[in-house]
Amino acid sequence: MNHFEVRSGELHCEDVPLTRIADAVGTPVYVYSQATLERHFNVFREALHAHAALGEPLIAYAVKANSNVSVLRVLAALGAGADTVSEGEIRRALAAGIPADRIVFSGVGKRRAEIEFALTAGVCEINVESEPELELIAAIAEQLTLQAPVVFRVNPDVEAGGHAKIATGKAENKFGVSFSEARRLYAAAAAHPHLSPLGVACHIGSQITDLAPFEAAFRKMRGLVEDLRADGLAVERLDLGGGLGVPYFNAPEPPTPADYAAMVARVVEGLDVRLAFEPGRMIAANAGALIARVIHRHERPEGRKFLVLDAAMNDLIRPAMYESFHDIRPVLATNAPPEPMDVVGPVCETGDTFAQGRSLPALDSGALVAFMSAGAYGAAMASEYNSRPLVPEVLVSGDKFAVIRRRPTYEEMLADETPAGWL
Ligand code: LLP
């Protein structure tokens, strides 16, 4: 459920008509519903709380999905932690008021300066993905004379389905250590004076719409916790990652958070660990829409129709990158009959196509459309490709809206470039 709905023939975000935002801020523009962000977080938390076996888990929102500081502030106020993958994301989480002891630092290639920053800030766990990384963390912790809280990200080698570019849990993927490496490295970490191994983690992919791969991975993780304990090692944390899919309207209905929580409760029953989850898409995707204006409709003599928008692949790259589906809705109701058309942006690549043969009313120049379910991996993946200024973001709460990242001016876009001295 989300808070985008048609009222008196006009698509609103909460109580604000999207036309008002488009007129005030210009297009393209991302619009987020605070009530939906809150609802998604609370639904997930309540689903987990329904099972005593799950204790009081850490819900570390995956910042990469939507890293706007206002979005993070909304979640921080609800008690969210943050799953981060760079110093930049840790800084964003801290700037939003997420306490360091709720920040997880993940990622396959953390740089020395980033690890120093994370350890000094006091993050609650660094998810270690390889032996060289463990050695680097140990050396830095020794130099800083502190204890590094480490959790081993294990690659559970399961097939998660979904798009190959976002599957992470197969042995051939770059992520995490194997089960045998985890046992060896955990024991080594336990013997190291500056490392505190706290537990193990996994994350098998994103937009997963079936519980079976999660369950297979989580059962393997439980086995690993038991094996480590049998080795005489203390294991207090189990981080189960993110990845639960959301409805994009064309895909199979994903399991509900309640179904997911019940499955996790079955798997971890009696294990006595503090759980952590890293949901991103589930919180943010359906809380956001990208609003664009029609530049014109172009009809080829042989019949192919193109709806050319002022949004492009640099603003929302998911269709070009993962062939992903976003529902496209006219912001103002129209009586024009729907017909199949290709919805495209102005960027000079055929890949800049949002949808092919999509059934939409023949909208005129200036009409507004909304790309639904664009709150996750939308603005966060935007670029200035084709020298199009970075797309702005707006947060709505009730009848208020605020620009939470403004559109840079052309002067600002050029300001960081210094012509080489010899030119
Ligand atoms: N934890 C880790 C370690 C991750 O790598 C990710 C996402 C998450 C949590 C959050 O996963 P989620 O709950 O959002 O599925 N750009 C792609 C998605 C990339 C996901 C990368 N990792 C897309 O637009 O579909």
Give structural notes.
This protein is of the alpha/beta class. It has 2 domains: 4-32 and 285-415, Lyase, Ornithine Decarboxylase, Chain A, domain 1 (Beta Barrel), CATH 2.40.37; 34-282, TIM Barrel (Alpha-Beta Barrel). The chain is built from 12 helices and 20 strands. Strands 4, 13, 14, 15, 16, 17, 18, 19 and 20 form a 9-stranded mixed beta sheet that branches. An 8-stranded parallel beta barrel has the order 5-6-7-8-9-10-11-12, surrounded by 6 helices. It has a 3-stranded antiparallel beta sheet with strand order 1-2-3. The model has no long low-confidence stretch (mean pLDDT 96). Bound molecules: ligand LLP. The site of ligand LLP has 20 residues, from helix 10 and helix 11.
Shape label: globular
Overall pLDDT level: 96
N-C termini distance: 56 Å
Specify the structural class: alpha/beta
Q: What is the count of helical runs?
A: 12
Low-confidence runs: none
Give the fraction of residues assigned to helices. 25-40%
Q: CATH topology of the largest domain, which one?
A: TIM Barrel
Q: How are the SSEs ordered, and which strands pair?
A:
Blueprint: E1 4-7, E2 10-13, E3 16-17, H1 18-25, E4 29-33, H2 34-49, E5 58-62, H3 69-77, E6 81-84, H4 87-95, E7 103-105, H5 112-121, E8 125-128, H6 131-143, E9 148-153, H7 179-190, E10 195-201, H8 211-230, E11 237-239, H9 257-268, E12 274-277, H10 281-284, E13 288-299, E14 305-309, H11 318-322, E15 328-330, E16 338-344, E17 353-361, E18 368-371, E19 393-397, E20 400-405, H12 410-415
Parallel strand pairs: 4-19, 5-6, 5-12, 6-7, 7-8, 8-9, 9-10, 10-11, 11-12, 14-16
Antiparallel strand pairs: 1-2, 2-3, 4-13, 13-14, 13-18, 15-18, 16-17, 19-20
